[in-house]
Amino acid sequence: MSRTSRIAVVGSANVDLTTFNDRFPRGGETIFGESFDIGFGGKGANQAVAAKFCGADVSMVARVGNDLFGPSTVENFRNLGIDAEHVRIVEGVSSGVAPIFVDTATGQNRILVVPGANNRVLPADVDEAAPMLKQADCIVLQFEIPLETVYYTVRFANENGIRCILNPAPGQPVDMSQVRDLDYFVPNETEAEAVTGIEVGSVDDAKRCAEKLLEAGIRRVIITLGSMGSLVAGSEGMEHVPAFEVEAVDTTGAGDAFIGSFAVFLG
Fold it and tell me: Kindly report the CA angle at 144 between 134 and 161, in degrees rounded to 5?
């Protein structure tokens, strides 16, 4: 009999400020945009919402600022049915924000993230949420909170026998000794390159990159490759999984939807 997956996300909560236009401005150029939207985002929050939409019981560990966006972010989690007991408002800092620029002609985007209160998600917050986290089938992490907290949570998951997924986004160098024995490491092409130094422009490149990550002690690697699909690698071998063909409208949050749904069905 199937049961409901229990997913805990330790990560970021941002407010997305999205501008749509058929081209990006050049340096020093001011142009009119087609439309503007404001909404809730952040990689951690996106992944939590994706998991909830796929039917999981989801809890979030996050921090928001004492500005206009903080209380509304907490309320949004609650309205979506996500446990926000461990989403706290931090005095004296802004909430995380992400100005996003979408090229409507191609669906591609450019994003600038200002972390704000996300930088206040600390190891002590993981300890505070420990009773909830120990009930999870899977803990999901990203790189929009301090690396110290990410590494601490990976160790916490390993010590307590909890499956853990790390999405190393935004891409940056990683102390691989801190993520040994991680269950799933799930970067996209640019994030994989930032971590390993291997440029990923093909499936063969992804295989070389995955080999390096497995040699570092990670149990399983999934490299998402956009229109080329994804590569899954582990001790059992490697397999390239082709993508479904779709017409891209806006790629914002696509990787987060992948991570959140993967966590649910894995659980």
Answer: 20
d(CA 153, CA 146): 11
127 is catalytic: no
Asked if 194 and 173 count as a contact pair (C-beta separation under 8 A), the reply is yes
What long-range pairs does 155-160 form, CB within 8 A, spacing at least 24?
Answer: 156/126, 156/130, 157/133, 157/183, 158/182, 160/133, 160/134
| pLDDT tens-digit readout, 110-124 | 888 889 999 999 999
Residues of the chain with pLDDT under 50: none
126 to 38, 74, 133, 169: CA distances (angstroms): 29, 18, 8, 20
Please give the pLDDT value at position 165: 98
pLDDT one-digit tens code per residue, 81-103: 999 999 999 999 999 998 889 99
Q: How far apart are the first and last CA of the chain?
A: 13
Q: Give the active site residue among 16, 125, 205, 256.
A: 256
User: Do residues 70 and 117 make contact, with C-beta atoms less than 8 angstroms apart?
Assistant: yes
Taken in order 148, 149, 150, 153, the sign of the CA dihedral is positive
Reading the block at residue 128, the tokens are 């505070």
